[in-house]
Amino acid sequence: MEAYDDLMKRRKEYIVLGSAYSIVQWDYETYMPPKGLMLKSEQLSLLQQILHRMGTNPEIGKLLDELEKNRKKLSDVQKRNVFLVRREYDKETKIPEDLVARIGKQTPISLETWKKAKASNNWKLFEPELQKTVELSRERAEIEMQVKGIPNLYDSMLDEYERGITSSEITKEFSELRARLVPLAKKCAEASKDFDSSFLSMEIPINIQRKIAADLTTVLGYDTVSDEAGGRIDEVEHPFTTGYYDDVRITVKYHENNVASAIYAILHESGHALYEQDLNPDWKYTPVGVAASFGIHESQSRFTENMIGRSPEFLTFYLPRLKKFTNGAFPRVDDRTFIKAMNLVKPSLIRIEADEVTYSLHIIVRFEIERDLFSDKITVSELPQVWNEKYSEYLGIDVPDDTNGVLQDTHWASGYFGYFPSYALGNIYDGMFLEKMRKDMPDWLEGVAKGEIAPVINWLKDNVHVEASMYDPADLVKRVTGKSLTAKPFLDYVEAKYSKLWGF
Amino acid sequence: MEAYDDLMKRRKEYIVLGSAYSIVQWDYETYMPPKGLMLKSEQLSLLQQILHRMGTNPEIGKLLDELEKNRKKLSDVQKRNVFLVRREYDKETKIPEDLVARIGKQTPISLETWKKAKASNNWKLFEPELQKTVELSRERAEIEMQVKGIPNLYDSMLDEYERGITSSEITKEFSELRARLVPLAKKCAEASKDFDSSFLSMEIPINIQRKIAADLTTVLGYDTVSDEAGGRIDEVEHPFTTGYYDDVRITVKYHENNVASAIYAILHESGHALYEQDLNPDWKYTPVGVAASFGIHESQSRFTENMIGRSPEFLTFYLPRLKKFTNGAFPRVDDRTFIKAMNLVKPSLIRIEADEVTYSLHIIVRFEIERDLFSDKITVSELPQVWNEKYSEYLGIDVPDDTNGVLQDTHWASGYFGYFPSYALGNIYDGMFLEKMRKDMPDWLEGVAKGEIAPVINWLKDNVHVEASMYDPADLVKRVTGKSLTAKPFLDYVEAKYSKLWGF
Predict the structure, then answer these.
(1) Per DSSP, what are the bridge partners of residue A139?
(2) Whether residue B192 sits in one domain with residue B86
(3) Predicted complex ipTM
(4) pTM of the model
(5) A128 within a domain of the structure (yes/no)
(6) A269 is known as an active-site residue
(7) Domain with A77 in it
(8) CB within 8 Å: B247 and A36
(9) What value does the mean pLDDT take over residues A24-43?
């Protein structure tokens, strides 16, 4: 069908230009000389304009109309591609350019103000700008919910990151998480209160950490070093992964006194990168050939970080390599002490430093706040108070200041409302994937203990990566596990793992 | 005038997108993982297509028509902007988008094949890809010569790099160069035949060379290190400079046993970078706010490299700093020996390592080959043989293999036919600029000896950089020096310098 080929040709241009945009953005985060900021902002804003023009070209609307009339002639994959383009097209064409421009203007102001407010612990400085960002996000979501036919405002925001999910589904699973994670975290903290993990803050020169990082990617099968590498590692302030199929790059921030931070950042970002590289190669340059959702993406990064990287088996395998890289200097403890140190559970203030057990609690705080904010149960000005109350209730800690509290994350300043739940959904999906993988490969951890990671990555590839965006996340998870969304497997996994490790 | 503002708004978009293209291209040369080649080629080809569409939008034609009817209402700068857009528009509208796409796709393939062929001394591997690039270049030039009304194919190629110049003008000046440089090179080689410069190949660790490189850019006033830097240094196979005003980057290749190579690469590329950064700031984002030509560009890089960097005064100033960076290890010779070593004249195989005297002879070889290739006097398959014959005749040396012969440069793989002459034109312009600068600042070298480089850079900035593209290169040179193109000042300069240095 000619119309289909024409649509895919246009979509390929859109995707290739998007990948060029990612390179320009990557350059901004990595190597741009400081004076180049204004030019970079011109480049990024222009590329976004061109992408918007491409995506809203009326020719696309005509092609979609024609293809939808002839739906029966399309294969399942073709139908999916048409569906995905329709979804984007309707949304992009319905949002007034004026609103896009107002959001484009407000976002850098909110971000800049947030940075200053965070640096000076001054919530009142940020509040009016956040208020504007909330109102603009609401304005956009009100249009999007119409277009998508979603009756609830915050559900429509969630749908942008996790197609098809609702806040009531999330509330149900997150309540279960909370009910079992809060006591588990307490038990872990109690059991480890005398444990000395201070050896982890030994100074490891950055040059050695770079070698460890490259080795970790190689162990996972994410190639950043060979003559045929499709990946690389660069150093930034806030780590991220970016790229498309054959060119997917991760980033890291090294701290001399915290090699564990780099190890887990590398394992996490490598999980993202492997997903992007292993998407179905037949679908390259088509709409279906992208990641299924933010939650599924996060499940892949958290699988390599936690299920693999924090398993006693992986740590036992990797410990001699760490010693080799540091000429025996690190770690100067036995296997069991090392494993415990890398799996210390301790309620803390900062989400991105949280352990495997308490992490989801940080997310639940943010989810409940977003949900209540967009159903007018709380106001922007109440955010610090609500934040602090929830941290006290769920994590049992007092928030000493807003810098380490409500001001810690960049997401809200960027207008990314609905994004946070993806992180905990990633954990929930991982529990479900792990349960199924154990059935398929009961001995998987024995392989990991020998450094055989490929079978695990291949399982993820064959079950998750290769499906790309063929299914909505809930459908994908059901295909893989046979189950609907449930936090139970994840909770069973963490309870079993941590009670064994800390002996309660 | 509304039409003028509209035209400039469109042109700004074109320039900003061009700067984004440069970043994507820079990424290709610096950090792209090897597997990303095909995606990169899609990105570059698409961006070129979009630039082509922007540049050939019929609205531009209408605006140009309207502005040309109302020429009298325009200022001189506005007239120049309209002229420059007209020139590009007429050319671009005649080149089919399909040809642009084919060139955009072939170029990375030719480049990648060239890299492999050079590494393995395998001309036959490269030949078929070069053949394709030659044919595509010819196809484009045949259209361009029609549009520009230039009767000769190769003259039209030259015009792309040096607006208005002809191969007969170049032949005339290059013949003069050859006539005086060949005997000068011989005398220098004879006078220095017992001179021992082996101390130059002392091993200097790359990390120290990186520090020297950063220091050299700082000495020249090209900032690659501060919190407000608009420049940076990266490492590549074949050094180049890229960027626009506030973000201009240079590249270098370090050799452990040849610190002089890095020193002169840095001085050379910094000259390019200073030119790009010092273009008239009032003309940013407009057509006139770009470099005048490739030859003028090369005059600026060769001025910092040779007129400044190879002067006895600069070397006397810089020697103690080199010693400091190497803890006194390099160079372990007196000023006079160091100056002579850095000004050794010796016919050699590699253009980019050539000295100030023989350099132009390398260019003359390439110019004659290009001229004869595009007038069908020689074929692509004959290139290695012709190359070797000319090296024997002009430089008196035998070429042992193609890696050190016809495969050494990237230009032809990139389709840059007509580019090479710019390098020797740069030398010729420099002779003319130097003659004038000496009249304006007779004591300039006394300043250089004290490390005061700013007055020289400012002279270049006030006389050359700030004029940007306001004039064609011949007109610019005439404005600065009062003279038409002549190789004599350059020849007088090198003869005087080298006869004094080597005592003949």
Answers:
(1) none
(2) no
(3) 0.94
(4) 0.93
(5) yes
(6) yes
(7) 2-161
(8) yes
(9) 95
